[in-house]
Amino acid sequence: MSEKLVEIKDLEISFGEGSKKFVAVKNANFFINKGETFSLVGESGSGKTTIGRAIIGLNNTSKGDILFEGKKINGKKSRAQEAEVIRRIQMIFQDPAASLNERATVDYIISEGLYNFHLFKDEEERQEKVKKSLVKLDFWLNI
């Protein structure tokens, strides 16, 4: 049986309060298993991006749970938990030209996360981490 990576349970996301309250997502339920390719499909305005933004912590949730590797990641969390979510979950937006610079080198693209989160102590370590990532990618692509 596959292990759940992300699970959305009875999720509701609303904006505003009182008579101006707008429920953008109501009773969303799905899960994504580790290693699985997943697509969230729907009409424009149906809440796909809103759910994605909630998963990465940009949108607050009104009800329900967002679990990552079995741990709740929505609602109140410590700075350490928030940093872990930011480090482990990234969102790639629909417009690839806005998300990925086609003129950037592969080295730069892989290094971007290393730079953003200060995950190397010197240039030699950065290059080694890039090489290891490329080796892992080659292995994954050949499965």
From TrEMBL:
Annotated organism of origin: Streptococcus infantis X
Q: List the keywords (alphabetical).
A: ATP-binding, Nucleotide-binding, Transport
Q: Name one GO cellular component term.
A: plasma membrane
Compartments reported by the entry: Cell membrane
UniProt xrefs under InterPro entries = ABC_transp_ATP-bind, ABC_transporter-like_ATP-bd, P-loop_NTPase
Q: What is this protein called?
A: Putative oligopeptide ABC transporter, ATP-binding protein OppF
Membrane topology, as annotated, equals: Peripheral membrane protein
**Domain ABC transporter, chain residue ranges per copy:** 25-132
**Keyword Transport appears in the UniProt entry:** yes
Name the domain of life.
Answer: Bacteria
Note the Pfam families from the entry. ABC_tran (PF00005)
